[in-house]
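Input.
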Amino acid sequence: MLNGHPEEVPERYEQASPIKLLPLGIQQVLIHGSLDINVPIGISHQYKNAADRAGDHVKMVELPSAEHFKLIDPNSEEWPVIVKETMALLG
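Output.
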């Protein structure tokens, strides 16, 4: 998506980094599986803390039994949480 690795095009990664774009000025919900080995949950915690400090309203929902891909699987037991939180965010 950024047409190169971070070492090759660091400025693109800097410009696309959500944490670097704070504050966004919109409500956000982070839904993260505790068992995610692709994106460690600490990244979401860091983002939430930075967003809170920047004045954004961010809700963090941690799913203790979910790994990375369960969050996009409509057949997973976590899917109702995804739908509920998305609908709540949309109002």
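The chain has three helices and two strands.
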